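Troubleshooting entry. The earlier prediction with adenosine-5'-triphosphate gave an output that would not parse, so I re-checked the input for stray whitespace and re-submitted. Clean input:
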Amino acid sequence: TVHSPSVVTFNEGSKKSNPLSTKNCVYSRIPYFGVVGNAHPSLLRSREEGTDSCQTFSPFNRGLAYIRVKDVAKRWRQYGVDSPRFRKRLHSKWESMNYDQVDSQLKRKNREGKQSKKKLAWEMLSSWLVYFSIGIGTAFLAAGVQIAVELIAHQKFELIKDFFDRCDKQGCLYQPVLIWMGINAGITLVGAALVTYVQPMAAGSGIPLIKSYLNGVRVPGLLSLRAFIAKCVGVVLSILGGLACGKEGPMAHSGGIMAAGLGKGRIPWFGKDINIYGLFRNDHNIRDLVAAGAASGVSAAFGAPIGGTLFSVEEAASFWNTELVWKVFFSAMIACFSTNFLLSAFEGHPTQLSNPGLVRFNTFPNLTFDLIEIPVFILIAAIGGLTGSLFVVMNYKLTVFRQKYLHRKKWIKVLEAGLVSVVSAVAAFFLMFTVKDCTEADPYNSHAITTKVIIMVTMLNNSSSNNHVDDDNDDNENGHDDEDDEEEEEEEEEEEEDGRMIKAMMMIRKLGCSGESHNSMSTMFLTTPEGCLKSLLHDPLETYSVASLILFVVIFFLLGVWTYGLSVSSGVFIPSLAIGAAWGRLIGLGVVQLFPDQAKDVGKYALIGAASQLGGILRTTISLTVIIVECTGDISFGLCIMISLMISKWVGDFFTTGLYDMNVEVSGIPLLSWEPPPLCDDIYVSDFMSQPVMTLLSVERVGHIYDCLSGESFNGFPVIEQDPSVFCPEGQLPRNQVSLKDFDNPYPVPQRLKIKDIELSEADKQCVMDLTPYMNLTPYTASLGFSMPRVFRLFRGLGLRHLVVVNDSMEPIGMVTRKDLAKYRAEIKKGMLHMEQLT
Ligand code: ATP
């Protein structure tokens, strides 16, 4: 399209003299364009003078301001790159998505005559199919992660079983402990290296970035195949490495990646793409699928389809309508059911559907409450808010420290993760061996001793059982070959094996305790965080002493703060719940002490503590209430959970933002919240728009476009309408040879096409390009009288990327992007609310 020579000229006319000048045009896609107006007379002069600087127009300097591309770029680049004030700056690397659908000539032409009922029905059906596959895919993923953790853990214990066995008798337990630590550190190092070197976007839970993406910020690499691999494999390794983290948060991110991949309908294959279908090829469509993927991930993780959907609504997605909520809920439900089916099938009873999610709180036998208990719940919630903000503040300080000193070199990030793993193991073993919290209370159930211990104990017991099995084999060889006998023997063997295992479990749990008693520290530390959470929620009243609960809270809290933000794939849900359950239990013990006649059970206090702690850290209310209610399967306690989450959020918000929002702020992401910032009613668009505006002509020299795009960070340019018939011989303008399919094909553009990758000869640069077919013909514009809240709502509600400010003659006089809005933030200083402008 750029080879046809043409003369670029334009009308000197004002609105009156030029009939075309009232038309607003926005070019979109190379990459995206803003608006329009008509050419100012002075622009004509600039073209005649043959300057190669981009044209700029400002009504305030009454004519034309020439600003070289590089000067403007320099001005903008100073923002935020090296600023040390982490939460006070926006990072210029983040670009926006265009959730507003572009209305170009090309799109209009494509729509004509293609609205047949059959096509519409097919489009609808295929969209439902994609949402269905998101649910199924996420379920496979969740089940895969769970099963991988179980199987590899088995191998891990197999590796050290002999040492444990031998050293238990010879008193050299330090040997297996050291080996255990070595294995943990090794696994964590591999997980951290995977995330750090393959795709750093896979670090952490990924929810803050998914939230930013759904808000309209482009996060390069977030939805890539590399991120998917690093996330899924990484989370398995983090858990096996013994870090204080869970796999639930990362499931939301992995679900989102899977959804985006399914939506794009192509598989990357050795640098090339295999195209399967091309239904969803714009930001708008992919955004909705990612919301469904995130919801399905949470649903599969907790077995909570409603909670997952609400989590996506509350925490992640920024744009909603009823149909989308329905589709997202559909995906979440499919994900929950399929995960249940797959995990039950893995356990050998697929039809019983007994595993609704990766983590369950298990049913509380007696989850009732008295109204007089509500003040205690409120107290717990307030503590949750306080400790939650402490967690956020400490993690913030640590994140800033990491960004300043540790994250300059990749290997330091990896090493830090390894160190945390070693420290976690040292802390656990130190507490288990030194704190003799011996109790005779029976653990609530086998869940108190999770897979890790079961496998370990099985291994521990293996040597004796091996001897036993050998004896049996000998018997068989001595002529017992009758089939019935064999079956009976097998059953007996299994029973004996179970008995030995339970005996051995108790042995391991003893760790220095005599008689029938066992060490409660080992119950808390020798399990995965999920197992530990269940123990704290359900174990009988006298299982844990006050001292061991306090020690657990302090150590696990510090480990949780240190672990979140490491360069590993990890989630914060489960550790937060476990910390809260521990101090909730502690408060429960106090209540039982004070009112021995009324209160006999500490489980519900542990549950409220867990909810409050998580609420105090994340500040999510609706979805967490529903997730916890779905996890416990008891709606009657929903009110108490809701109250505690609400209060922990209020208390927490008084001190800091939530953990995810803090992450967003530290990364300098220009996130637009639901509402405009307070105190901005008297700020007008003229105060925060950028000017002069860099514009393009509707038929523009290729070299000029190239210079504007490569020399500048801007992505949207108002296109100034001109009347080509004035100077250009008719018929010489290139006809449009680009179809919508070609146009949409390279989606997503920024990852695939970089302007600097396009090589243009001097002859090419002298050619002209007709931008008319691609530009947005009906862009949103604002006049100078628009106030900030109004512009904010326009941006937020419509998912805009650029807004052009025009004067009465429809001339572009200013440009507003999300960065112009996001830099206004209200902060409390000395008890007063102040409006702050970030750099
Ligand atoms: P995004 O990065 O969100 O994709 P963009 O690159 O076009 O959009 P920003 O990086 O947000 O723009 O722009 C930074 C600053 O440049 C903002 O203050 C914005 O108002 C200004 N700006 C953007 N486009 C233009 C333009 N065509 N002319 C003048 N200023 C502009």
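This one parsed fine. The longest helix spans residues 117-170.
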